[in-house]
Design brief:
The structure holds three protein chains of three kinds. Chain A has three domains: 8-55, no CATH class; 83-338, Aspartate Aminotransferase, domain 2; 345-447, Aspartate Aminotransferase, domain 1. Helices cover 36% and strands 13% of the residues of chain A. Chain A has 13 helices and 13 strands. In chain A, the strands form three sheets. Chain A has a seven-stranded mixed sheet, sandwiched between helices. In chain A, strands 10-11-13-12 form a four-stranded antiparallel sheet. Chain B has one domain: Beta Barrel (OB fold (Dihydrolipoamide Acetyltransferase, E2P)). Chain B has helices at 26-32, 79-82, 86-89, 114-122; strands at residues 3-6, 11-16, 19-24, 35-39, 46-47, 52-58, 62-66, 71-76, 98-101. In chain B, a hairpin with a 2-residue loop joins strand 2 (11-16) and strand 3 (19-24). Chain C is α/β, with parallel strands linked by helices. Chain C has two domains: 95-351, Type I PLP-dependent aspartate aminotransferase-like (Major domain) (Aspartate Aminotransferase, domain 2), CATH 3.40.640.10; 359-486, Alpha-Beta Complex (Aspartate Aminotransferase, domain 1). At the A-C interface, helix 1, helix 2, helix 3, helix 4 and helix 5 of A face helix 1, helix 2, helix 3, helix 4 and helix 5 of C.
């Protein structure tokens, strides 16, 4: 078997040294009743070619968004990832390295993560960031838990513009901690009044900007209203490219930013693995969950990097840790930082602007189609349109013609019938004129 | 003359009148290694004997410092915010953590004197 | 005192010093060409970003050089041996990387209409079938993103099941040898934690456990084989005692590599167990992640598994994102979208490659290699327990007594010899622990070189050459780093000189 270096000769020699007759003898502590007596009902080993063929046949059953017009968003976005990114993350020294607990032989990972942390603070306009969490939704849940620890209050208000998965994950973690989550009604018109809900028991308000339905809002008044009552403002960002075009959450008064970084460096991957980001104000540093990389010097006085403030973490504080989290998103965070480094200021803001321009063009063209109206006065690269009838059926018809026309809101709000005609449509720098024309033509065909 | 006693959690307690000053012993600071952060209680906080009073963190460990007596926290050592290393360099003096009033003198029963603590720590 | 010659550049032959990316800024430069932006009337509500973000500009070749040089400062399993107990640092097969990236797998959007992704759902179902069969359990939750996340998910499932029968209970029992994620997860689930001591054979003290078991106990969390590398031979009795008080048995599956293909946790009475796909199932560690921690579940717990899941319906595979069926009580959602699909595809590729026979050989060779190291090292180091061990062997620092050399110093000296240190100071049940797990993907030559190195280092320590250890490592890109300074004065972001304190 190609991954097992030991030969039968090796095994015999090793057993002799141990003084055992067979490998089975080494399992003597396993109770007889627990030992498998025969092979499991699974196939035996196969060669590499067979594995590839099997996985390829599974892949070929799926409609790949790389080959067709795709307007899918709702928290995961199709962007062009420069070829260098995937080459670099596949270097064995990055791909197959362990967590950098031995900093002397992990400066590659540690420096890259220090750069990542810095980039995340720059994008979000915040003061300190961790070295990533699993994804945006779990980062959102961690942000609420953190706000509760900091304010010593229980209640969190979840905007109706918050991605439903983020809300569900946050509600799930809150359920077991005995917390009080107030979820607002879906905010498809971008005009919810959340300020009137804030009181002295509120730990935080969680808003998303741009919102789930696409709206871009000035959060400064909300930030003031929160602080007046001693609550924190948590801002969620699901499309990280928006920070290249829109005022940063930090600039608008956020206390905690939790975000999804997938758009940089990471393909959609059917939803995972991706990369969760978290950035906070300096004064909340000790309550920040997740790994942190800090700068220091070595025995020769040279600058180097180490994991630090570990006493917040599970392997030391155990049940008193800031979180039970152990891993970060590692390689996905590396892909993010490499992509962003390759873009630089000019590239990142340029591509962001291009995203917005494509979306503006698409919105103009769609609003000219009979029966379609756009709900948004503002958006970055994704907006909501209302169709004459249920959007899910329209999308299914388009899919049958190899066109991925967008995400029906009903996919994420299955029980809200008043939303069933709504469709989320995203455009990025990968959206061509031909793509847009195909969508217009397709919709006109289906809607007639 | 202040009375100096030790608890089994390696804390020292120096009593003057009805106030006790609390810190950790030299043995404890050596076990912990370089102290990087101390989380002090709020002044005015009421603690029961055995409650968590403070938390002391080194690079690799975090330890609770328990209230050795029931009472109210009257003062905390702000110097530790900027110089947590004082716990290592002067654990019995400038590395003190907090002062607490003693509401029940019998809370001091069972604590060890210097000699008994030395034997306990080395045992 | 370092052993380098100083050079003009700071580089040392093929060993490069690499500055921070922010220190290499060419303002306006980019490694990407931005296409022409069409004229458009902005719809940002006047909230255009006007401040500069501060990102440095570099061309593509500069970016590639930067990260290539950084990579060269990393040790990795591709570089050499990691005897890291509890981590299962095994070879990461490259075909897994290839198939995970196939168009039609790597680029799928999670919210495509499900009829456009039958192959993806089938992949998840196949992966689930393999994992259920290997563990002998009827159900699996595929969505947790990592082992610790899986633990939390397993405990939440248990709590949901207890709440459904009217009483969530109060406490979770955890051995003092457990990994820190165990009590942290219990706490995140609203439970308090009580410790179970180990007996002098390194296993759970079953008598002490029985005394702690009452109807306030929601669950016990055990690792099996345990963190001392030993199989809990009374595990079936433990399961029975736990079930007798109406509690559940959670098993931390971090050490599944010892028994995969030979023992099924389902046969031991376990109710929930997370698997670390980045340990037993070869998905890459990536410098700290991403992981994946699916949780296999017993019959009583299955109805409470979190959303979403794939079921095999009459018309093929269905992705269930909301379940209104009367017998389904999912406790909620633990992750955005569907889980770590990219790690599932790699895992399926691995399991198919090895097959039933190969996986049994994996655990066999893993246990063989660990026992080989135990046999060869037990007279030089101090083995904490009598053999045989499972896939890892535990030593403590008694062999260093009186030398002035600590476990840490010993490990740092190993680095100069080209080995990553073993797991140190874990588990906490012995002093100065050294936990060694070779895995099954090391050749006998590598194991013998490791033994030789450890033996000579031990002799050097006993001979009193303390400086050799306390000054180690000397040959790495950086010497020992000041972790106290890093924690006392945290510098967590780069700032331009103008903004430095």
């Amino acid at each position: 078997m190609r991954y097992l270096p030991l030969t039968d000769t090796n095994r015999r020699e090793m057993l002799d040294v141990i003084g055992a007759g067979s490998i089975e003898d080494l399992f003597c502590d396993v109770p007889e009743a627990a030992r498998l007596k025969g092979p499991l009902d699974l196939p035996n080993s196969v060669d590499e070619q067979t594995v590839e063929t099997a996985l390829r046949s599974l892949a070929n059953k799926n409609l790949s968004p790389s080959n067709v017009p795709s307007f899918l968003g709702a928290g995961i976005y199709r962007h062009h990832i420069p070829a260098a990114v995937d080459h670099l993350i596949q270097r064995g020294e990055f791909l197959t390295a362990y967590t950098p607990y031995q900093p002397e032989v992990s400066q590659g990972t540690l420096q890259a993560m220090f750069e990542f942390q810095t980039q995340v603070t720059m994008l979000t306009g915040m003061e300190v960031a961790n070295a990533s969490l699993y994804d945006g939704a779990t980062a959102c849940a961690e942000a609420v838990l953190m706000a509760q620890r900091v304010t010593r209050r229980n209640k969190a208000i979840l905007s109706g513009a918050l991605h439903p998965h983020y809300r569900e994950v946050t509600e799930t973690s809150a359920r077991f901690m005995g917390s009080n989550m107030i979820a607002c009604a879906p905010d498809q018109n971008g005009d919810e009044d959340i300020i009137s809900l804030i009181d002295e028991e509120t730990a935080c308000v969680v808003v998303q900007n741009p919102g789930f339905f696409g709206h871009v809002r000035d959060l400064s008044p909300l930030s003031e209203a929160c602080h007046d009552k001693g609550a924190l403002l948590v801002v969620i960002v699901t499309e990280i490219f928006s920070l290249g075009a829109v005022k940063s959450p930090g600039d608008m008064g956020a206390d905690i930013v939790a975000a999804e970084g997938q758009s940089l460096g990471n393909s959609a991957g059917f939803g995972g693995p991706t990369v969760g980001l978290m950035a906070v104000r300096q004064k909340f540093l000790r309550q920040l969950p997740g790994r942190l990389v800090g700068q220091t010097v070595d025995a020769d006085g040279r600058r180097g990097f180490v994991l630090t403030l570990s006493t917040r973490e599970q392997h030391i504080r155990r049940e008193k840790a800031t979180s039970n989290i152990c891993t970060n998103a590692g390689l996905c965070a590396l892909a993010f930082t490499i992509h962003l480094s390759q873009l630089g200021e000019a590239g990142f803001t340029g591509i962001a602007k291009l995203n917005h321009a494509r979306a503006v063009q698409l919105a103009e063209r769609l609003s000219a189609v009979a029966g379609i109206s756009i709900l948004n006065d503002t958006f970055f690269n994704e907006f909501t349109i209302a169709l004459p009838g249920p959007a899910a059926g329209v999308i299914d018809e388009l899919a049958a013609k190899d066109l991925l026309g967008g995400v029906p809101v009903s996919r994420l709000y299955p029980s809200d019938s008043e939303l069933e005609n709504l469709l989320l449509v995203a455009a990025t720098e990968t959206t061509t004129d031909a793509d847009m024309q195909a969508l217009i033509d397709g919709l006109m065909e289906v809607l007639k | 003359m202040a009375e100096l006693k030790y608890t089994e959690e390696h804390e020292w307690v120096r009593v003057e009148g009805t106030t006790a000053t609390v810190g950790i012993s030299d043995f404890a600071q050596e076990q912990l290694g370089d102290v990087v952060f101390v989380e002090l209680p709020e002044v005015g906080k009421a603690l029961k004997k055995g409650d968590e009073g403070a938390v002391v963190e080194s690079v690799k460990a975090a330890s609770e410092v328990y209230a050795p007596v029931s009472g109210e926290v009257t003062e905390v050592n702000e110097a530790l915010n900027d110089e947590p290393g004082l716990v290592n360099s002067d654990p019995m003096g400038n590395g003190w953590f907090f002062k607490i009033t003693i509401t029940d003198a019998s809370d001091m029963d069972g604590m060890m004197d210097e000699a008994a603590y030395k034997a306990f720590a080395e045992g | 005192m370092n052993d380098f010659q100083t050079t003009l550049t700071g580089h040392q032959g093929l060993r490069f010093e690499e500055a921070l990316i922010f220190e290499q800024d060419s303002p306006g430069a980019s490694g990407v060409d931005v296409p022409t932006i069409p004229d458009h009337a902005p719809k940002l509500g006047g909230l255009e970003r006007r401040d500069s973000i501060g990102l440095p500009g570099l061309s593509e070749p500069q970016v590639v050089r930067h990260y290539l040089r950084l990579s060269q400062q990393n040790y990795s399993i591709d570089s050499g041996f990691y005897p890291l107990g509890s981590c299962t640092m095994k070879y990461n097969p490259r075909v897994n990387e290839k198939v995970a990236r196939l168009p039609g797998l790597g680029d799928l959007h999670p919210l495509q209409p499900t009829q456009t992704v039958p192959g993806a759902l089938e992949l998840m179902d196949l992966c689930a079938t393999w994992l259920k069969t290997l563990t002998g359990m009827p159900a699996v939750a595929l969505s947790p993103a990592a082992g610790a996340h899986g633990e939390l998910t397993g405990l939440m499932t248990i709590r949901a099941a207890l709440e459904a029968s009217g009483n969530p209970r109060k406490r979770v029992l955890v051995p003092d040898s457990a990994h820190g994620t165990n009590p942290a997860s219990a706490h995140a689930c609203g439970y308090t934690v009580a410790s179970i001591p180990a007996d002098d054979r390194g296993r759970v003290d079953i008598q002490a456990m029985r005394e702690l078991l009452d109807e306030d106990v929601a669950a016990i969390m055990l690792t099996n084989p345990n963190t001392c590398g030993l199989f809990e031979n009374e595990i079936i009795e433990i399961a029975k005692a736990v079930h007798d008080v109406g509690a559940y048995f959670y098993c931390d599956g971090a050490n599944f590599n010892a028994i995969v293909g030979r023992v099924r946790p389902g046969d031991l009475g376990i109710d929930a167990m997370h698997l670390n796909l980045h340990k037993t199932f070869s998905t890459p560690h990536g410098g700290g992640g991403p992981g994946s921690g699916p949780v296999v579940l017993s019959e009583p717990l299955a109805p409470f598994a979190p959303l979403p899941y794939v079921i095999h319906g009459p018309d093929g595979f269905e992705l269930i994102e909301q379940d209104d069926r009367p017998d389904a009580h999912p406790f909620g959602r633990v992750k955005g979208f569907h889980g770590q699909f990219g790690m599932l595809s790699r895992t399926l590729s691995y399991m198919m490659s090895l097959g039933s026979d190969g996986l049994a050989q994996v655990s066999g060779d893993a246990v063989l290699s660990a026992n080989y190291l135990l046999a060869k090292l037990k007279d030089t180091l101090s083995a904490s327990f009598e053999g045989p061990c499972m896939h890892e062997a535990l030593f403590d620092d008694r062999f260093l007594e009186g030398t002035g050399v600590t476990t840490l110093d010993f490990a740092k000296a190993l680095i100069d010899q080209g080995f990553h240190p073993m797991t140190m100071y874990f588990p906490l049940v012995v002093h100065g622990a050294l936990l060694i797990e070779p895995t099954e993907t090391e050749s006998k030559e590598t194991l013998d070189l490791f033994v030789k190195t450890m033996t000579e280092l031990a002799a050097k320590a006993k001979a009193g050459d303390v400086a050799f250890f306390t000054e180690a490592p000397k040959l790495t890109p950086r010497r020992r780093l000041d972790e106290t300074l890093a924690a006392r004065n945290p510098v967590l972001v780069w700032k331009p000189d103008s903004e430095q304190d």
